[in-house]
Write a structure and sequence with these properties.
Elements lengths: L1 H9 L3 H4 L3 E5 L5 H8 L4 E6 L2 H13 L6 E5 L11 E5 L13 H10 L1 E8 L2 E9 L2 H7 L13 H12 L1 H4 E2 L12 E7 L10 E9 L4 E2 L2 E9 L6 E3 L11 E5 L7 E2 L4 E10 L7 E7 L10 E3 L19 H16 L1
Parallel strand pairs: 1-2, 1-4, 2-3, 4-5
Antiparallel strand pairs: 6-8, 6-11, 7-13, 9-15, 10-14, 11-12, 11-13, 15-16, 16-17
Length: 340
């Protein structure tokens, strides 16, 4: 859980915190602020934009007798008044695929405007990784299921089911079993030095990622995860399938059924991975994954994580549609869910 990695990663930095003024950006219920106070911080300013959450943090601080050390400030970090410059900025800013919701930009604002020269930002480094996967368990449960329904061939539904599943946030954030990763090693998408990176650097992240398959596989998607570091390699939070599960899980970009490369062990595959801030909502990102010309496999697998508009969505998922097709499929889906 998040609390476990707070304890495991943050406590070793007691010497860094002791006697210092600390700023906790997006403090939530105040866990990092409490840990900083316990580690001997001279004062902690805990900033939280959500008024209700800030009120809860205030109560928690008071319940632990730390109101003389921890001050909760309600508001966005870009708009609040922090009484003094701080020595240390801490934050649990990471989102799905590292940058989702773009809270890192707020942390960088605190670094540039509220931290003393020579101050420290924790975490101080972040890496975004990716690998290819066959997504066998997801495919079996959500797609292959339609191949035979009550003895009938429902395979025409499979493509629609895949499109519906790929567009669902619940299907994009999964705990992917390590044995479903089919590349010999992951590829690095971004390596961010948080002391130097600028907000503009986060608007567009692009990397050509090359892979070699470690076994024969149908490549059904690209899996993203991140690592963040707290000064040293040992002080780190890892969210890959090879490590202890976290609430971030992994982010999956599903390939269309007709674009999934079927390749043998040793095949080289290369994909251009782009993560771009959304033009309408800068706190959200669009992810695109496109096969590059250097891939050995035939075909052109191209994925854009944007929901495609269709005249009719996945059968049975239209709550107001009373057509016979939707009525039958909706009833079947309900029965399937009940009996799982």
């Amino acid at each position: 859980s998040s609390f476990q990695w707070f304890l495991r990663v943050c406590f070793p930095f007691a010497e860094t915190v002791r006697g210092k003024v600390v700023l906790d950006v997006g403090c939530g219920t105040g866990v990092l602020s409490l840990l900083a106070a316990r580690a001997g911080a001279r004062h902690v300013y805990a900033v939280e934009a959500a008024a209700g959450v800030a009120a809860m943090a205030t109560e928690i601080v008071r319940a632990n007798g730390l109101e003389a050390v921890v001050t909760v400030i309600v508001g966005e970090i870009e708009r609040v008044a922090v009484p003094e410059q701080v020595d240390l900025v801490v934050s649990e800013w990471m989102g799905f695929y590292l940058v989702h919701e773009s809270m890192l930009k707020s942390v960088l604002f605190a670094r540039d405007h509220l931290m003393k020269p020579g101050g420290l930002l924790l975490p101080n480094r972040a890496q975004l990784w990716c690998s290819l996967a066959d997504l066998a368990s997801f495919h079996q449960e959500h797609i292959e299921f339609w191949r035979s329904v009550l003895g009938f061939d429902f395979s025409p539904v499979m493509k629609h089911a895949q499109l519906e599943a790929a567009a669902s946030p619940a299907s994009m954030v999964l705990s992917v079993p390590q044995d479903e990763l089919v590349a010999e090693r992951p590829a690095l998408v971004a390596d961010l030095d948080l002391a130097a990176v600028s907000p503009a650097d986060l608007d567009y992240i692009w990397r050509r990622c090359a892979f070699t398959l470690r076994r024969d596989a149908t490549v059904r998607g690209l899996v993203l995860w991140f690592d963040v570091f707290f000064g040293t390699e040992s002080g780190a939070l890892h969210t890959s399938p090879a490590h202890e599960a976290t609430h971030w899980k992994q982010t999956v970009v599903h390939f269309p059924l007709d674009a999934c490369p079927q390749a043998q062990r040793g095949t080289a595959l290369s994909f251009d991975v782009a993560i771009e801030a959304d033009g309408k909502d800068p706190r959200l990102y669009n992810i695109s994954v496109c096969a590059s010309a250097s891939s050995d496999a035939d075909g052109d697998a191209q994925i854009c994580a944007e929901e495609e508009e269709e005249e009719h969505g996945m059968p049975g998922h239209e709550p107001s549609c009373d057509c016979m097709q939707c009525t039958v499929v909706r009833a079947f889906l309900k029965d399937k869910a009940t009996n799982q």
